[in-house]
């Protein structure tokens, strides 16, 4: 694959809105970026930039299926000055450096001063996702950049952190280290409050993390709070993820695999043998 380091996020989620052939499309301004900035200032509008490459499959998909959707076209044409640049040609090379674009597609929302307010990496399939990101970009303090600044200033409120991890993941940024730091600082009595459970459920996949070990320790309590089905799904998912992650790792060897299997079996989870059996069955097929 060309440019293997630039892994694309192509999120395959069944669309909630129809992507049938439409009549309208986003009208991209074909001008140098400095002129686009000038237009944005005159019209007091934010800029929407599609940062793409010619070899990027997901870039082609959103150009054909998303940017030609009536609902998205009407919204973006009204609210933004829209532009697109090939990040490997002409002015796109400079813009890629300026805005630190490293994966494609990257969708940028830029204020008239040229500052990134919000961004999303990848090609979500839901029309609603593009409506939501436009709303986030236009809401003061809700965008990616504002959340990064609040985090740097020390905001660790659980509701904020839930949205912070969403912003990180949407921007294709790693969540493991800030997630570990956050949960390591949360008192055990509060670690499975409703919002913290949601953060754990959505973003935590480290089998050795404090939060996961506490989940195993407190499983009966969690079952009563969030139902056994929900808790089992999460715990089993973490174990399965650990097996598949190890199988793709340079550290994969018989000793490490045996140690991980034993860790899963020693957890006391009823479905531990099934998780291992399903993993080994899948690996044999490959």
Overview of this protein structure:
The chain has a four-stranded mixed β-sheet with strand order 2-1-3-4, sandwiched between helices. Helix 3 (70-79) packs parallel to helix 5. The protein is built from 14 helices and four strands. By secondary structure, the protein is an alpha+beta fold. The chain has helices spanning 33-43, 57-66, 70-79, 91-98, 127-138, 144-152, 158-170, 176-185, 194-203, 210-217, 219-226, 228-247, 254-266, 272-285, and strands spanning 46-52, 80-86, 106-110, 116-121. The chain is 55% helix and 9% strand. Strand 3 and strand 4 form a beta hairpin.
Condensed summary:
With 286 residues, this protein is α+β, with helices and mostly antiparallel strands. Helix content is 55%, strand content 9%. Helix 3 runs parallel beside helix 5, helix 7 (158-170) runs parallel beside helix 9 (194-203) and helix 12 runs antiparallel to helix 13 (254-266).
Helix and strand layout, with pairings?
Layout: H1 33-43, E1 46-52, H2 57-66, H3 70-79, E2 80-86, H4 91-98, E3 106-110, E4 116-121, H5 127-138, H6 144-152, H7 158-170, H8 176-185, H9 194-203, H10 210-217, H11 219-226, H12 228-247, H13 254-266, H14 272-285
Parallel strand pairs: 1-2
Antiparallel strand pairs: 1-3, 3-4
Helix pairs in contact: 3-5, 6-7, 7-9, 11-12, 12-13, 12-14
């Amino acid at each position: 694959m060309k440019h293997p380091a630039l892994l694309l996020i192509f999120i395959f989620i069944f669309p909630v809105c129809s992507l049938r052939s439409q009549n309208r499309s986003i009208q991209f301004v074909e001008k140098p970026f400095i002129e686009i900035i000038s237009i944005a200032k005159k019209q007091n509008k934010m800029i929407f930039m599609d940062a793409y490459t010619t070899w990027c499959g997901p870039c082609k998909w959103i150009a054909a299926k998303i940017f030609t959707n009536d609902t998205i076209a009407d919204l973006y044409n009204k609210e933004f000055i829209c532009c697109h640049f090939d990040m490997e040609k002409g002015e796109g090379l400079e813009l890629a450096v300026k805005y630190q674009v490293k994966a494609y597609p990257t969708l940028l929302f830029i204020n008239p001063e040229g500052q990134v307010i919000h961004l999303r990496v990848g090609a979500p399939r839901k029309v609603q996702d593009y409506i939501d990101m436009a709303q986030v970009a236009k809401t003061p303090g809700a965008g990616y950049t504002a959340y990064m600044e609040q985090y740097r200033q020390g905001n660790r409120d659980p509701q904020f952190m839930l949205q912070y991890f969403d912003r990180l993941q949407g921007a294709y940024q790693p969540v493991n280290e800030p997630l570990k730091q956050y949960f390591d600082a949360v008192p055990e009595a509060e670690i499975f409050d409703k919002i913290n459970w949601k953060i754990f459920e959505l973003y935590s996949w480290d089998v050795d993390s404090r939060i996961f070990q506490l989940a195993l320790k407190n499983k009966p309590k969690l079952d009563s709070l969030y139902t056994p089905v929900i808790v089992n799904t999460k715990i089993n998912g973490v174990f399965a993820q650990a097996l598949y992650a190890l199988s793709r790792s340079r550290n994969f060897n018989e000793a490490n695999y045996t140690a991980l299997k034993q860790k899963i079996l020693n957890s006391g989870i009823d479905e531990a043998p099934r998780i291992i059996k399903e993993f080994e069955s899948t690996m044999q097929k490959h």
